[in-house]
Specification:
The protein is built from three helices and no strands. By secondary structure, the chain is mainly alpha-helical. The protein has two domains: 45 residues; 32 residues. The longest helix is centred in the middle third of the chain and has 19 residues.
Length: 79
């Protein structure tokens, strides 16, 4: 299984802890993050959330975490 295949298996799952991931899924997420970061820096990112609705739900109040997720969602096309 490739790392991108491992990430594809995450669709529809709730991830509450890092131990909920297999080694391949965890590495796949790291690879995805590296790719997205590279695309943003080279102005080549595609907006995966364009015309989609999302909900950000946090267990604890954290301005820094919420802000980081809101910026990431905006960068991916959520308006």
């Amino acid at each position: 299984m490739t790392n991108s295949d491992a990430v594809a298996t995450l669709k529809g799952r709730s991830l509450l802890r890092d131990v909920d991931l297999t080694k391949e899924e965890f590495i796949g997420l790291l690879d995805l993050g590296e790719r997205l970061r590279h695309e943003k820096r080279t102005a080549a990112e595609r907006q995966a959330l364009k015309d989609k609705s999302i909900a950000l739900i946090f267990e604890k109040s954290s301005t820094r975490t919420r802000s980081a997720f809101e910026v990431a969602a905006h960068d991916q096309g959520r308006t």
